Amino acid sequence: MERLQKVIANSGYTSRRKAEELITSGKVKVNGKIVKELGTKVKNSDTIEVGNDIIDNNKNYEYYILNKPRSIISSTEDEHGRKTVVDLIDTNQRIYPIGRLDYDTTGIIILTNDGNLANKLMHPSSNIEKTYIAKVEGLVNNNEIKKLREGVLIEGKKTAKAKVHLKKYDKKTDKSLVEITIHEGKNHQIKKMFQAINHEVVKLKREKYANLDLRGLKSGMYRKLTNKEVAILYSLIK
Question: Is 104 noted as a catalytic residue in this protein?
Answer without folding.
Answer: no
